[in-house]
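Hey L., structure's done. Input below.
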Amino acid sequence: MAKKKQPAGTPAVVALTAAGAEFSVHAYEHDPAHPSYGEEAAQAMGVSPDRVFKTLIAEVDGALVVAVVPVSGSLDLKALAAAVSGKRAAMADPALAERTTGYVRGGISPLGQRKRLRTVLDASASAHPTICVSAGRRGLEVELPPATLAALTSATTSPISRP
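Output:
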């Protein structure tokens, strides 16, 4: 995967470009009728669902936290709370998640968010040379090494997903 000159676009792509990160962008035609944004992305790109990660916004003890987990699984809220030394976690209100990140549901990227939130990347990401996450718009994904994502988001890595 070579470093490519990317056109200015979503805040996520702008952030990656500004950081000089190695990444590639994958665009696909988003189907509004598809039941799962992440599974749609995996199918459209021909990538295993365990390499495509979804960005979820949860609330842990009143603070918003970004959880990045494979689309092949689901977020373990208890594990997320423990990962940030919290007691209780719940999914955040979708409207609050959109306002805080600056992205729409189904297109929330862990990169380039309006307000920088504490981020936890599922430990399974390290099993892959590259993973795909939303580039900040439905139908647009970025592929990058998990260590790059962790570094650019100041993420901690912890087992926060379950099958």
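The radius of gyration is 14 Å. Residues 2-7 have pLDDT under 50 and may be disordered.

-- N.
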